[in-house]
Amino acid sequence: MLNNDVQQARVTVEEEFEDWVEKHKEPVMQKLTLENYFNVWKYVFYLNPAKQRVWVRPGDPLATFVRRDVHGEKHLWSFWVCAHGSVYRRLFPKSTAMNSKGMVNEIEEMGRRLALIHSQRFKEVLLFDNAAPHREQVSTDKLGQLGYVHMPHPPYSLDISPCNYHYYLSLQDFLVGRDTRTQAVLDNHIEQLINTRPKQFWKDGIRKLAER
């Protein structure tokens, strides 16, 4: 349950976003470059057992199933995407944590990849959540140096982050039941998912942002 301050912050940010979109009549939503690590950085687990629903008679013992260990092995996944598809992704070594230095390196690498894919006119708007490495001065300075416009994002609002409500959700569903015990196999599954998504999949994720 969001408190009043957080709710008001969401309203304020959404009004600012709507005003910005109104001033830019061209297809703004296609020019957004979105980054998220799931809770700003998303962790991808090695084991992703499928949930099962089983009916038993009263008094009968319940069947046991393997559950994913929330403290099990996992990797930090960095994923940058625009309306045209995946721009840059990286699966970090085990036990990697994100900080401002790592964030700056990711911003620089994303900028280089994006420059190879699109013209400069696409390098305008960047949207990611308000986790500490995103808000630190060294990160915001790098964004300004590269000429990005960083759209604000309200706190506790994963439901209006396209990487959370659309892209990563698709990855979670894709990995269910798959045993990815090594980083190489896990990375291969992620590559397979990205390569098999239709063009409309990437556009839909960003289009839904305006609806939300």
Architecture overview:
It is a single chain. With about 210 residues, the protein is an alpha/beta fold. The protein has a single domain, classed as Nucleotidyltransferase, domain 5, CATH 3.30.420. The protein is built from seven helices and six strands; from the N terminus they run αββββαβααβααα. Strands 1, 2, 3, 4, 5 and 6 form a six-stranded mixed sheet that branches. Helix 2 runs parallel beside helix 4. The chain is globular, with a radius of gyration of 19 Å. It holds the Pfam family Transposase_1. InterPro entries: RNaseH_sf, Transposase-MT_Hybrid, Transposase_1. This is Transposase.
**Termini Cα gap:** 18 Å
For the largest beta-sheet, the strand count, sense and barrel status come to: 6 strands, mixed
Residue windows where pLDDT falls under 50 for at least 5 positions: 35-41
The average pLDDT is 70
Secondary structure: number of strands: 6
Form type? globular
Helix-strand pattern:
HEEEEHEHHEHHH
Give the count of structural domains: 1
Class per helix and strand makeup: alpha/beta
Task: Indicate the radius of gyration in whole angstroms.
Answer: 19 Å
- Report the CATH C-level class: Alpha Beta
Helix content: 40-55%
The named CATH superfamily? Ribonuclease H-like superfamily/Ribonuclease H
Number of helices: 7
CATH architecture: 2-Layer Sandwich
Amount of beta strand: 5-15%
CATH topology call: Nucleotidyltransferase, domain 5
Feature tags:
single chain; 212 residues; Nucleotidyltransferase, domain 5; six-stranded mixed beta sheet; 6 strands; nucleic acid binding; Transposase-MT_Hybrid; RNaseH_sf; Transposase_1
